[in-house]
Amino acid sequence: MILIGTMNLTRTRDRGNFYCPTCRTPQSYRLRARRPFLTVYFIPTVPIAGAEEFVQCDECRSTWDITVLEIDRESQKVVAEDQFHDEAIRSCLLVVLADGHISEPEIEALHRIAANLFSRHIDREELGRLASIATQKGVTATNYILTISRRWNESQKRKALQGMFLAASAEGELGPLQTEMLAKMRELLDLTDLEYQSAIEETLNWGE
Known about the structure:
Organism: Novipirellula herctigrandis
Domain Co-chaperone DjlA N-terminal: 87-199
Pfam families: TerB
InterPro entries: DjlA_N, TerB-like
CATH superfamily of the largest domain: TerB-like
Number of strands: 5
CATH architecture of the largest domain: Orthogonal Bundle
CATH topology of the largest domain: TerB-like
Protein name: Tellurite resistance protein TerB
């Protein structure tokens, strides 16, 4: 019996330096090519498709389409900042949804937070769509922050916390649920007690 199968062979075609969107710093990379081969007795014999090229960061091992080499550092910064703003607004919305509903004062607060803190306009329709998706998928603020905050820098973590505090206090004084949630956010964002208190105090002083 002849054993026939397929396998992918990956080879490094080139090396260089680029701005890694994951590391957010210049890093070395490998330009790699992956190509499927027909195998006979586990030995690759005939290529059965064209080679697929991709870029792999030597530091974080993330892989990217080769077009990443054409994007300069400043363009990457703009894209990353826009992504952070969207993620931070979603975080604020999830904080509001923690008690199972969203009130008119909370909607108005989210509008102000998006515009003033994250330079982003968001209308009721988009808020409703995001809230509906989060509710249907069972996304919680803590799980979301745990997943996406790893790529935030210290300044972004502070800013996101301030937005979440403003969202949590939209209806007045913080209740036990909001207080517990914000304390959990401090832990997830890896902020010290002093950093947490400083960020909240700065937010309280905005109205003065």
